[in-house]
Amino acid sequence: MQFKIMTVEDDRAIREMIAENLTKWQFEAFTTTNFSNVLEDFLAEKPHLVLLDINLPIYDGFYWCQKIREVSKVPILFISSRNNNMDMVMAMNMGGDDFISKPFSIEVLIAKINATLRRSYDYVDLQTDILEHQGIILNLDSGTLKINEQIIDLSKNEYKLLHILMKNHGKIVSRDKLLRSLWDDERFVDDNTLTVNINRLRKKFESAGVGHFIETKIGQGYIIP
Amino acid sequence: MQFKIMTVEDDRAIREMIAENLTKWQFEAFTTTNFSNVLEDFLAEKPHLVLLDINLPIYDGFYWCQKIREVSKVPILFISSRNNNMDMVMAMNMGGDDFISKPFSIEVLIAKINATLRRSYDYVDLQTDILEHQGIILNLDSGTLKINEQIIDLSKNEYKLLHILMKNHGKIVSRDKLLRSLWDDERFVDDNTLTVNINRLRKKFESAGVGHFIETKIGQGYIIP
DNA sequence: AATTCAGCTAACAATTTTGTAAGATACACA
DNA sequence: TGTGTATCTTACAAAATTGTTAGCTGAATT
């Protein structure tokens, strides 16, 4: 099931960041900047969930929450600029379903959205799980890789390696950790087997036109910067 | 990273339910029922996160939160029996990191725990992603299956099939949907190929001593009830 | 600059995975 | 109950994955 999410947020940078990430996570995202009549856009688009900033020009988020509640039980997730406890209580009393304070990480936002959707709709066909970094999308459902619209099939070893490295992007992952993650302690594999598997993974990236995704840190391990 | 979580909750059923689920989600769980000295157990175990019920015998959750705060900055997630806004504000003022009201879904609890851990510890090595149903655990990271402590390796097709069926447990998934999920439209595969792959998956369950996990609904598809 | 060692690459064989064919069952409906 | 169709099972060959070996490359250290 494809959920449609409406974002009401006046800070353009945040608005665009949210929309971009929602799309990335396979939601249908749309934003409104018609702050004098949010309800109009809501009724026109009928989203499955509303992300509502509290600080808005003209009327505030609480006002629009009330307006929406008059016509719909759609789940509403409030976004607050400051970590204000009164806001949080207010938001909940208003009929808000959850509350997130800026600054927030996209992972937390997505987790909250998924949790709220799961609670509000009886849906079992969960969102596609993905891991994204620099335009490279790892699909956890199918174990495939998407690089500028090309779908690349990964073997199980390749998938496991990339999964670990992408989860830890920005940090060096030691060869030892990778070895222990892919092969049980009991099972003895040659140290070079890891190198070969990294090599195979890199070749797939190269064949898709991506040069240096996985970097070697000699003596330390590998990193996706 | 393996996080240790301490649960302080007087309702035995809830306490055990939480502990069981924490373990399932790869946390190290321990509970205390020493309500006259929660701090003692806290100091002995040094957990990474505390789940603290507000209504407790002898002293309440707020008291223990203060006691813990005197010695530690460990993240504390409050559990409230009633959806009481004052409790929520109080909890936050006390130095609580998050707040969840009963009844809560395990998914939400886990999401909140993960979000809090992510905020509190600079860890990028996220929790293992799993899908669980009736004691059968599908590890999304490694593409393996865990059936009463046995680890069973799945091939890529077997993993994809099981993943879809487990995501949709309780619902019938049509053969057509499975076919389209596993094989691109362009790629023509025999209709029986799906049957064979289901058969192979079932054999792995049987070899682990599980009889009827995937049921056939003739003319409709397959279902994990 | 020479040396050393960590990591890279290519080639090979063993193993596993995969799709298909062919015949066997079992269910649904007349 | 009989018939047709959907699903199951087994066996087989093709294809992909995997671990190892052996030799190569390139960075770090002296």
Looking at this protein, list some descriptive labels.
alpha/beta; 4-stranded antiparallel beta sheet; 8 helices; transcription cis-regulatory region binding (chains A, B); Rossmann fold; homodimer; DNA-binding; 20% strand; 225 residues; transcription regulation (chains A, B); 2 domains; 5-stranded parallel beta sheet; Arc Repressor Mutant, subunit A
Structure, described:
The structure is a homodimer of 225-residue chains. Chain A is an alpha/beta fold and 225 residues long. Chain A has two domains: 118 residues, Response regulator (Rossmann fold, 3-Layer(aba) Sandwich); 94 residues, Orthogonal Bundle (Arc Repressor Mutant, subunit A), CATH 1.10.10. Chain A has eight helices and eleven strands. A five-stranded parallel sheet of chain A has the order 2-1-3-4-5, sandwiched between helices. In chain A, strands 6-7-8-9 form a four-stranded antiparallel sheet, covered by helices on one side. In chain A, strands 10-11 form a two-stranded antiparallel ribbon. In chain A, strand 1, helix 1 and strand 2 form a beta-alpha-beta unit. In chain A, helix 6 packs across helix 8. The two termini of chain A are 33 Å apart. About 3% of the residues of chain A have low confidence. At the A-B interface, helix 4, helix 5 and helix 6 of A face helix 4, helix 5 and helix 6 of B. Chain A binds a DNA duplex (30 and 30 nucleotides) through helix 6 and helix 8. Chains A, B: It comes from Isobaculum melis. Chains A, B: Pfam families: Response_reg (PF00072), Trans_reg_C (PF00486). Chains A, B: InterPro entries: CheY-like_superfamily, OmpR/PhoB-type_DNA-bd, Sig_transdc_resp-reg_C-effctor, Sig_transdc_resp-reg_receiver, WalR-like, WH-like_DNA-bd_sf. Chains A, B: One of its GO terms (biological process) is regulation of DNA-templated transcription. Chains A, B: This is Two-component system, OmpR family, response regulator.
